[in-house]
Amino acid sequence: MNLGTLPKPPCVELNLASPLPRPQSLNQLKTFTIPKRIMAIVFTITEKIRGGYTASAIGEAIATEGKDIDELYNNIRTSTIDYFGAELAPNTARLYFLREEVLYIFPDRFDASNN
Fold first, then answer.
1. Tens digits of per-residue pLDDT, 58-110?
2. Running DSSP on this structure, what letter comes out for residue 30?
């Protein structure tokens, strides 16, 4: 096969002098979105074994911790404002405290020395 006989690939000419088409309505402006402020953010709170608390936001990349509950609340406020910015940060945070407990259905069958 002789490479000299191959046809040239088609080229597209760009007319840079022509203006870009303008959208006819606001519905056509789908590429520009204004971020909306969410009303509330949800955190799960767990108590650490050696003391203190951790908080993780559901659906957002926010996690923080505190030595006591007051420090945790302050850290949640600070990290939420840092993540969203003061303009878009939600007004409230819903906190769900997760705690694990074991309830023995038959306490007389349980031997505490085994666990």
1. 999 999 999 999 999 999 999 999 999 999 999 999 999 998 888 889 888 87
2. -
Residue linked to tokens 């769900």: 96
SS3 category, 58? coil
Strands 92-98 and 53-57: unpaired
CA end-to-end span of the chain:
80
3-state secondary structure of 26: helix
Q: Which residues pair with 91 in a beta bridge?
A: none
The answer to whether the beta carbons of residues 40 and 94 sit under 8 Å apart is yes
Specify which residues 63 forms β-bridges with.
Answer: 56
pTM: 0.61
Report H helices in the chain: 69-84
List the Cα angle 106/107/108 in 5-degree steps: 95
State both tokens at 12.
């597209």
Choose among 45, 50, 51: nearest CA to 64: 45
